[in-house]
Amino acid sequence: MMNYMKSEHYRLLHKKGLYVTSAIGLALIIAAAVVLSLSLHFDPNFPYATSRFFYSNVVSGGVLIVIIGLLFNSALTGKDTAVIKQSISFGISRSTIFWSKLILTFIYFLLICVIGLALTIVLGESLLASEEQAVKNFLLASFNMIPIVVGGFFVIHVLRMLKVGDVYVIVMLLFFFLLSGDLVRLLFRSISGMDELYHYAPSTLLNENLMSFLAQEVQFEYRPWITGIVISVIFLLIGARKFAKQTID
After folding, report:
1. Neighbours of 124 (CB within 10 A)
2. What's 48's DSSP letter?
3. pLDDT tier at 2, thresholds 50, 70, 90
4. Which of 6, 15, 143, 205 has the fewest CB atoms within 10 Å, i.e. is most exposed?
5. Can you tell me whether residue 129 is helix, strand or coil?
6. What is the separation, in whole angstroms, between the first and last Cα of the chain?
7. pLDDT tens-digit readout, 118-146
8. Backbone phi, then psi, for 129, in 5-degree steps?
9. 28-29-30-36 Cα dihedral, nearest 10 degrees
10. Average pLDDT score over the chain
11. For 178, which DSSP code?
12. Which residue in 40, 53, 203 sits closest to 134, CA to CA?
């Protein structure tokens, strides 16, 4: 497995898309901070040039973060059918291929997220009006987002490895992150004891996390971790099993 991972790591480092995606993501963070700072410079009464408002854009950006994850994952799961077929012909197990691609792309996605988080805090505290407890609340809110974002990344990996098109992947992500809570509430509203399940839906959790951050009442939540772990385990187990049986054309 280590030899295959080294080979895939070499391929990953030579993917231009990896660097372009990273640069664009970080540039967007810088641009947002600069625009808010300049707005305050030209209008001293501008109310949104604060670190808390700046951080709220990240806390509310779960969908955008996961779409960036899609771009990272696609570096090794895009048009790789011929490469995968060749690897299998050389005796590389499908399990090794599935997990190696996941581990490598996830490590780089996690790295850029950490860099982006640090950059956001540095810009927020240096260019904008700092508010009390803003950094602490931002870190707590970000921590609550981790399992949902990671679960989304794993869902992406499974769908990509099973050759699901990008359009369908994005539709599923939008469902998870924007509509899942409303749908769960609609489906189970008439079933006693099940009508509270929507509180564990990804969209509900992200929205509540944002509202708590804006109200400066954010605290550690266990529900995102339950939801994230359940989604991750189910999709990865099913995905690995299906990929092991999938025909590689």
Report:
1. 26
2. T
3. confident
4. 6
5. strand
6. 23
7. 999 999 999 998 888 999 999 999 999 99
8. -70, 115
9. 100
10. 88
11. I
12. 53
CA gap 117, 139 in Å, rounded: 9
Taking only the tens place, the pLDDT of each residue in 170-210 is 888 888 888 888 787 777 776 766 667 888 899 999 999 99
With 0-12 / 13-18 / 19 or more C-beta atoms within 10 angstroms meaning exposed / middle / buried, residue 200 is middle
Q: How is residue 198 annotated by DSSP?
A: G
Cα(171)–Cα(11) distance, integer angstroms: 28
Classify residue 193 as exposed, middle or buried by CB count within 10 Å of its CB (0-12, 13-18, 19+).
exposed
- Label residue 224 exposed, middle or buried (CB < 10 Å: 0-12, 13-18, 19+): buried
Rounded CA gap, 150 and 147, in Å?
A: 5
Give the tens place of pLDDT for each residue, 201-231. Answer: 999 999 999 999 999 999 999 999 999 999 9
Cα–Cα distance measured from residue 107 to residue 103, given in angstroms and rounded to the nearest whole number: 6
SS (H, E, C) 217-243: CCCCCCHHHHHHHHHHHHHHHHHHHHH
Quick check: helix, strand or coil at residue 50?
strand
Q: How many CB atoms lie within 10 A of CB 232?
A: 19
Sequence letter at residue 75: A
Per-residue CA distances from 198 to 180, 182, 194, 233 (Å):
8, 7, 9, 20
Tens-place pLDDT, residues 22-40: 999 999 999 999 999 999 8
Closest CA to 141 of 165, 117, 171: 117
Q: Comparing 146 with 7, which gets the higher pLDDT?
A: 146
Residue 167, token pair as written in the block: 């359009």
The count of other CB atoms within 10 Å of the CB of residue 242 is: 13
Residue with tokens 């359009």: 167
C-alpha angle with apex 5: 102 to 71, nearest 5 degrees? Answer: 40
